[in-house]
């Protein structure tokens, strides 16, 4: 059983007031705590463009929300690659209106190749090109191959990505042997490092994606899959407070007679 919280002294009345605490005794409680904590670090929404873009942004955000940080990182990198290659292939038409085939879209074999192809073009205007190269080299490939210790080390030593590493996990704050054995172990990623990295990567990636969308002439395609647009917007419009989540859970599955 894990207890977290605090006690506040009400000085005006001279007595202690016990405030709400977390009492986590099972995985359900753990999951609820993770969702409430991570909700504060969710990225902003992007405008509806098409299912392949918005659903992947939703998947990245949802994975982060529930604590699946490796999944969030991997899907965020896939999202960066996908948005940029779609903008390169056709920056006017999107969704079902886009005439290009999957084969035409799949002409780039990696995020790094897409970044190189986009460099200097108008759709990349205002983007942090060095950041894109750093993510492609140090995060995208390492997360795809599940080389999490190497990813943590690479990020710590890359100026554009070092902010994704908690200060006390930085190599300059640790003995070299301790750093190699514990700080950059897979277990460290699942302890705190993964949450820290995933949240900041997702936030920065969303900002960069918004720049690309702003450089295109895309008008969101709502001609089909309208229910998916609704789900996307509901996720980002939802107030992820403890009270709201609990109420949503309670009301989601109830006896039919209660609706009469």
Which percent bin holds the helix content?
55-70%
Portion in beta strands: 5-15%
> Given the C-alpha coordinates, what overall shape results?
flat
Number of H- or I-type helical stretches? 11
Class by SSE composition:
mainly alpha
Q: Largest sheet, described in full?
A: 2 strands, antiparallel
Strand segment tally:
4
Unreliable segments of 5+ consecutive residues: none
Radius of gyration: 22 Å
In the sheet with the most strands, the strands line up as 1-4
* Series of secondary-structure elements, N-terminal to C-terminal: EEEEHHHHHHHHHHH
- The chain-level mean pLDDT equals 92
Distance between the termini: 41 Å
Describe the protein.
A hairpin with a 4-residue loop joins β2 (7-10) and β3. The protein is mostly helical. It has eleven helices and four strands; from the N terminus they run ββββααααααααααα. It has helices spanning 27-39, 51-65, 69-89, 102-105, 111-118, 129-144, 148-156, 176-183, 186-215, 226-237, 242-252, and strands spanning 2-4, 7-10, 15-18, 22-24. It is 57% helix and 5% strand. α3 packs parallel to α5.
Question: Keywords for this structure?
Answer:
4 strands, two-stranded antiparallel ribbon, 5% strand, 260 residues, 57% helix
């Amino acid at each position: 059983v894990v207890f977290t919280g605090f006690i506040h002294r009400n000085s005006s009345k001279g007595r202690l007031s016990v405030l709400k605490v977390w009492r986590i005794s099972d995985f359900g409680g753990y999951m609820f705590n993770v969702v409430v904590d991570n909700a504060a670090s969710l990225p902003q929404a992007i405008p509806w463009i098409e299912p392949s873009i918005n659903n992947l942004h939703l998947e990245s955000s949802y994975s982060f929300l529930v604590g699946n940080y490796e999944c969030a990182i991997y899907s965020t990198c896939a999202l960066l690659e996908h948005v940029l290659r779609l903008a390169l292939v056709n920056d006017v038409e999107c969704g079902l209106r886009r005439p290009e085939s999957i084969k035409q879209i799949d002409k780039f074999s990696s995020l790094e190749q897409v970044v190189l192809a986009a460099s200097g073009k108008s759709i990349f205007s205002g983007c942090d090109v060095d950041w894109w190269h750093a993510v492609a080299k140090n995060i995208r490939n390492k997360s795809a191959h599940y080389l999490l210790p190497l990813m943590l080390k690479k990020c710590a030593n890359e100026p554009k990505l070092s902010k994704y590493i908690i200060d006390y996990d930085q190599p300059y704050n640790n003995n070299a042997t301790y750093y190699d054995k514990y700080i950059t172990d897979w277990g460290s990623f699942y302890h705190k490092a993964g949450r820290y990295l995933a949240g900041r990567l997702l936030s920065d990636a969303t900002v960069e994606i918004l720049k690309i969308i702003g450089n295109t002439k895309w008008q969101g395609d709502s001609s089909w899959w309208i229910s998916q647009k609704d789900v996307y917007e509901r996720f980002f419009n939802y107030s992820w407070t403890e009270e709201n989540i609990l109420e949503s859970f309670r009301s989601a599955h109830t006896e039919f007679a209660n609706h009469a």
